[in-house]
Specification:
The chain is α+β, with helices and mostly antiparallel strands. It is built from ten helices and 14 strands. The chain has a seven-stranded antiparallel beta sheet with strand order 2-6-7-1-5-4-3. It has a five-stranded mixed beta sheet with strand order 10-9-8-11-12. Strands 13-14 form a two-stranded antiparallel ribbon. Strand 4 and strand 5 form a beta hairpin. The radius of gyration is 25 Å and the shape is elongated. Bound molecules: zinc ion.
């Protein structure tokens, strides 16, 4: 079984104000937790647990017009956040400073056509794609632009048989974000660079709404592109071997913008859960020497170093085969893992 989150946009014009009212009641609960925790700490130097807060807030659901379960989830979340932050109190919440967040359990809501009934109120959504699986829980959330969404976490069964039959090696890069060993390359423009100028103009002119809209646009394009690419790859393969390239060193070089833009971590995460859902396997491969080694004869004759990142194609001095830089690297990553090719000198085969 896998958990899938379906995210739908709420029809803000009809349901937005209602959700904003619920969110402000939630802020009230949050601030109450903050205050009562601080008082408890001042008087006996103890931190209240989630259980204590559940007891203290019991019976308030009617006055707050929130379900008892939602209040409990807010209390639990408060305790988790306070532990993570290692502070005595957290920041106070107000409608101006915090984004809306309304958690709920599936048992308390009903989805019918394009309407969600929640605590006796009707919230209208754009059902952009059909819902599958069993709904377990969910939340209403607000983004930085004040738009509301509903997130429904559903349990869906995994495929019994792998949908694809190939074994694919995957190289993650900056010019081509994802390259597969079967020669298929997923490449898009650097979105950060593409939108840098209009974004800087909006920020200089202090046009906050425009800046937020541009940032949201970049995030949406990146997310859409990454989902489409990773789904297509996971559908083709039984075994996925992903390069273990790390971005920590690269973000200190002039390639930082491209590294952040490529979002390798997100690609790796998506491929991992999508492979599981489609009955495939996703493992990490060793990317060391993968771009300098010839995938044909195993000699390290390719371009090496940061300065040679611009060299896209090269000819092996050992066997004379012409290589595309990224496809060759992806082939090496796959060969090392599956052990089909001759082991490359200096790298142990696992
Ligand atoms: Zn060669």
């Amino acid at each position: 079984m896998s958990m899938l989150t379906y995210r739908y946009r709420i029809k803000d014009s009809t349901s937005g104000t209602h959700l904003a009212r619920i969110a402000s009641a939630i802020n009230y609960v949050w601030n109450y937790c903050n205050e009562v925790s601080l008082l408890a700490f001042r008087s006996d130097k103890t931190f209240l647990t989630a259980y204590d807060l559940h007891t203290l807030t019991a019976g308030t659901s009617k006055d707050l017009r929130l379900s008892a379960d939602t209040i409990q989830q807010v209390c639990t979340e408060y305790v988790t956040r306070r532990r993570q932050s290692k502070k005595i109190t957290l920041k106070w919440r107000s409608w101006r400073r915090s984004l809306g967040w309304i958690p709920f359990k599936a048992a308390y809501i009903r989805l019918h056509a394009e309407t969600i009934t929640c605590c006796g109120h009707r919230v209208r959504v754009w059902l952009s794609r059909p819902l599958t699986g069993t709904m377990k829980m969910g939340s209403f959330t607000q983004d930085a632009r004040g738009r509301w969404y509903v997130n429904l976490h559903c349990e869906v069964p995994d495929a019994a048989e792998p949908t694809g039959q190939r074994a694919i090696g995957i190289d993650l890069g900056l010019k081509n974000q994802i390259t597969c060993s079967d020669g298929i390359i997923y490449s898009r423009e650097n979105l950060t660079r593409q939108h840098a100028q209009p974004l800087a103009m909006a920020q200089r002119a202090q046009k906050k709404r425009r800046a937020k809209a541009l940032q949201a646009k970049m995030a949406n394009i990146r997310k859409d592109w990454t989902h489409k690419a990773t789904t297509a790859i996971a559908r083709r393969a039984k075994l996925l071997v992903i390069s273990n390239v790390s971005s920590t060193k690269l973000v200190k070089t002039p390639f930082a913008t491209s590294t952040y833009d490529a979002a390798w971590g997100i690609v790796r995460h998506q491929l991992t859960y999508k492979a599981k859902r489609l009955a495939g396997v996703c493992v990490a491969g060793n990317e060391r020497f993968s771009s300098v080694t010839c995938s044909g004869c195993g000699i390290r004759s390719g371009p090496s170093g940061l300065s040679a990142l611009g060299v896209r194609a090269w000819v092996c001095s050992g066997c004379g085969v012409e290589h595309d830089r990224d496809v060759n690297a992806a082939r090496n990553i796959l060969a090392l893992r599956s052990g089909r090719a001759t082991p490359i000198k200096g790298i142990p085969v696992r």
